[in-house]
């Protein structure tokens, strides 16, 4: 998931072609770019079309999940922004001998802030009405980060994973790229001014290009390193993204030279650029390490289109990028980007995501809000900002300001009132302070058998107090994971990730991924610490099979394969009494044509056989059936029944494969579905306890509630 570059819509109006008469609204100033060979600048309709492609990719990706790499649209916008802003700064410097930083930043604030403030205000109000718990308050905090052009910093500090669909997303999350741009443009004009002050004459642009190339090289190198070392923070970092804007700047600096290339070469390069963007959008996915080296394809492709898009025979002439529909989408692209993500997040409260109804409604509502925002806020500002839009003195400054204020206020009020009115028509299902839902009075969640607790939870009609609370779910994972940092166990922390008495007569090892780790609070609660020692041998995204798998950010999860051998060797050197094995059933295989069922069965059998060869017994726990992310599902408009899911088909398939593999090797396999579901239906809350912190990892509290079931499984193995 990614965002649009709005800066291209907010460049100075002094370096553009004459604005049309008042009867025609002028286009955004940033739509004007230079044609290097000509003496004057003029409108680049092809860049409008490129902007339309970029925002279309982003919106489709966020609304439908297709194309998987639609997030590269933001990289396209970064390139456009770097090209247009740098060109305008250079022309101002060459024309006047100076760069007015005050005018530059005032113009950017005037263009960017009004529409953004309206979106932030409306979204904050709607979130207060729709969301439960602390989620609404976090939206307000995110709004403040966004307003300060520091959203990327805020989300990085929160540890937000942009591509993680298992947690609740902030409706302000897309503001990160605006923050990246504004942070970039704090320093960029200074670099241009410094270089042009030190070098004069014809060498000025050469020197400036060299300085920009150095910045791009350093930023790209850091992007590759940071994406591998810390992918979550790298995604939001200005330092990993600066080179993308810098590439656009290089095109602006070298525009005259590039324009002298033969038309045929320019046209081929432009078509290749368009193809590169399409390939990246279709080939990339949420598992592609990004930005890193992968960003080079969409960035360089966008640069080719920006440089050569209007070449004779290129995609900018005569129809593709410059058609009226494309130019219209380009006109409203900034507002469309601002509105679409809040619409996606907030509409998901009312309509089930992943349906055609949701997709059609989200797109239609986003477009309507974008057009309204453009007509009421953006275009009046752009018209008022042009000195030639109206005859001198025909529109007093006070009237202009008043019109701007009225337009922004109107859309804010309309949006807020609409959101509140829609909610008012729906039943209020906020927590009442009583027990969860309408449970039968005889049902005591602390004493009733687990099956009865689950059945009663399926009948709940209202949200009650939850323990842990919705606002605490992100930190409600197993303390062995969140506090002791024992998710990835190796030689450096294996001793620290051992629990129980050092003299305990019996030992159990836990082998697998984060799913295995989420069972540990329950295992420790089930086993007396003076009788059992629990040794963790887990590793993130590392299932108990021998076949190579892909990680979330790795094409081949090599660290998993290395860890698996290390863990099995350790078990062989000092065999425990029991090895508890568990893992997520969704890890993708490296081999795309392999039969997953056959590979998983063979791989599981081999792991179990190696465990049994040491003299230890193997217990295979089926992973919990995946569920909804409760923090996202639970809202003021629904009830616990809306967060009930059936046992997924993937669970049944995985259970069948694991059961056959375990039985073949004489191991114990435990079907855990009845620990979470009743008659095939699985609530997200049992009693007052949320089952998951996301959609698959157990809360520590629920894991401990399963201690009797886990003990029974362990005794059965013994």
Structural account:
The chain is mostly helical and 718 residues long. It folds into two domains: 6-109 and 150-375, no CATH class; 450-717, Rossmann fold (3-Layer(aba) Sandwich). The protein has 26 helices and twelve strands. A six-stranded mixed β-sheet has the order 3-5-4-6-7-9, with helices on both faces. Helix 22 (596-613) links the parallel strand 6 and strand 7 (617-621). Helix 1 (45-64) runs antiparallel to helix 15, helix 6 (176-198) runs antiparallel to helix 7 (203-229) and helix 20 crosses helix 26. The longest helix is centred in the N-terminal third of the chain and has 30 residues, at 101-130. The protein is elongated, with a radius of gyration of 29 Å. It starts with 31 loop residues before the first strand and ends with a helix. Mean pLDDT is 85; it is low at 1-41, 387-394 and 418-447.
Number of domains: 2
Q: What is the global morphology?
A: elongated
Q: Which stretches are low in confidence, meaning pLDDT under 50 for 5 or more residues running?
A: 1-41, 387-394, 418-447
Main-sheet strand order equals 3-5-4-6-7-9
Strand coverage percent = 5-15%
Q: For the CA atoms, what is the radius of gyration?
A: 29 Å
The DSSP helix count reads: 26
Structural class: mainly alpha
**Biggest sheet, open or closed, and with what strands and sense?**
6 strands, mixed
Overall strand count: 12
Can you give the helix content as a percent range? 40-55%
Whole-number average pLDDT? 85
Report the span from N to C terminus.
Answer: 48 Å
């Amino acid at each position: 998931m990614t965002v649009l570059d709005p800066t291209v819509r907010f460049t100075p109006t002094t370096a553009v072609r004459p604005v049309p008469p008042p009867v025609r609204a002028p286009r955004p100033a940033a739509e004007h770019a230079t044609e290097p060979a000509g003496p004057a600048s003029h409108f680049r309709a092809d860049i409008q079309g490129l902007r339309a492609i970029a925002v279309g990719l982003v919106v489709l990706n966020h609304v439908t999940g297709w194309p998987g790499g639609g997030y590269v649209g933001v990289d396209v916008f970064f390139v456009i922004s770097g090209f247009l802003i740098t060109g305008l700064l250079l022309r101002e410097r060459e024309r006047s001998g100076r760069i007015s930083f005050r005018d530059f930043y005032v113009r950017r604030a005037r263009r960017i802030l009004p529409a953004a403030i309206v979106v932030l205000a409306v979204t904050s109000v709607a979130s207060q009405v729709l969301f439960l718990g602390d989620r609404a308050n976090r939206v307000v905090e995110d709004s403040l980060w966004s307003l300060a052009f520091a959203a990327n910093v805020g989300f990085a500090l929160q540890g937000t994973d942009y591509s993680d669909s298992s947690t609740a997303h902030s409706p302000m999350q897309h503001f990160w790229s605006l923050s990246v741009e504004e942070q970039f443009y704090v320093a960029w004009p200074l670099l241009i001014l410094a270089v042009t002050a030190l070098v004069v004459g014809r060498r000025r642009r050469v020197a400036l290009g060299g300085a920009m190339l150095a910045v791009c090289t350093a930023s790209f190198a850091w992007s590759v390193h940071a994406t591998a070392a810390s992918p979550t923070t790298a995604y939001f970092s200005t330092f990993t993204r600066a080179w993308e804007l810098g590439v656009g700047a290089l095109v602006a600096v070298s525009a005259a030279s590039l324009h002298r290339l033969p038309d045929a070469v320019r046209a081929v390069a432009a078509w290749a650029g368009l193809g590169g963007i399409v390939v990246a959008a279709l080939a990339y996915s949420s598992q592609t390490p990004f930005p890193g080296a992968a960003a080079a394809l969409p960035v360089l492709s966008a640069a080719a289109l920006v440089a050569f898009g209007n070449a004779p025979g290129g995609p900018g002439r005569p129809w593709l990028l410059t058609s009226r529909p494309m130019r219209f989408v380009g006109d409203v692209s900034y507002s469309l980007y601002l509105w679409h993500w809040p619409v996606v997040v907030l509409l998901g409260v009312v309509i089930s995501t992943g349906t055609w109804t949701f997709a059609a409604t989200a797109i239609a509502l986003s477009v309507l809000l974008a057009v309204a925002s453009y007509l009421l806020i953006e275009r009046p500002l752009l018209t008022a900002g042009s000195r030639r839009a109206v005859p001198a003195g025909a529109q007093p400054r006070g009237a202009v300001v008043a019109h701007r204020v009225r337009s922004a206020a109107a859309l804010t009020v309309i949006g807020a009132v609409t959101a509140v009115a829609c909610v008012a028509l729906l039943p209020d299902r906020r927590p009442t302070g009583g027990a969860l839902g309408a449970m039968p009075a005889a049902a005591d969640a602390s004493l009733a058998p687990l099956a009865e607790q689950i059945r009663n939870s399926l009948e709940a009609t209202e949200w009650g107090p939850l323990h842990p609370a919705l606002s605490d779910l992100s930190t409600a994972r197993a303390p062995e994971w969140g506090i002791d940092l024992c998710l990835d166990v190796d030689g450096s922390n294996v001793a620290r990730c051992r629990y129980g008495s050092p003299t305990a007569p019996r030992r159990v090892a836990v082998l697998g991924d984060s799913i295995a780790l989420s069972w540990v609070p329950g295992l420790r609660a089930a086993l007396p610490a003076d009788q059992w020692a629990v040794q963790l041998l887990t590793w993130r995204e590392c299932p108990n099979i021998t076949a190579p798998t892909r990680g979330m950010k790795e094409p081949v999860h090599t660290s998993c394969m290395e860890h698996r051998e290390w863990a099995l060797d350790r078990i062989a050197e000092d065999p425990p009494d029991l090895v508890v094995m568990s893992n997520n059933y969704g890890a993708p295989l490296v081999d795309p044509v392999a039969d997953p069922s056959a590979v998983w069965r063979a791989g599981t059998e081999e792991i179990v056989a190696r465990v049994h060869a040491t003299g230890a017994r193997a217990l295979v726990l089926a992973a919990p059936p995946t569920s909804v992310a409760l923090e996202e599902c639970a809202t003021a408009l629904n009830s616990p029944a809306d967060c009930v899911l059936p046992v997924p088909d993937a669970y049944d398939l995985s259970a069948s494969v694991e059961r056959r593999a375990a039985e073949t090797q004489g191991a114990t396999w435990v079907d855990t579905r009845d620990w979470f579901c009743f008659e095939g239906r699985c609530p997200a809350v049992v009693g007052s306890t949320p089952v998951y912190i996301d959609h698959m990892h157990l809360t520590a509290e629920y894991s401990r509630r399963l201690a009797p079931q886990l003990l029974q499984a362990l005794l059965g193995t013994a």
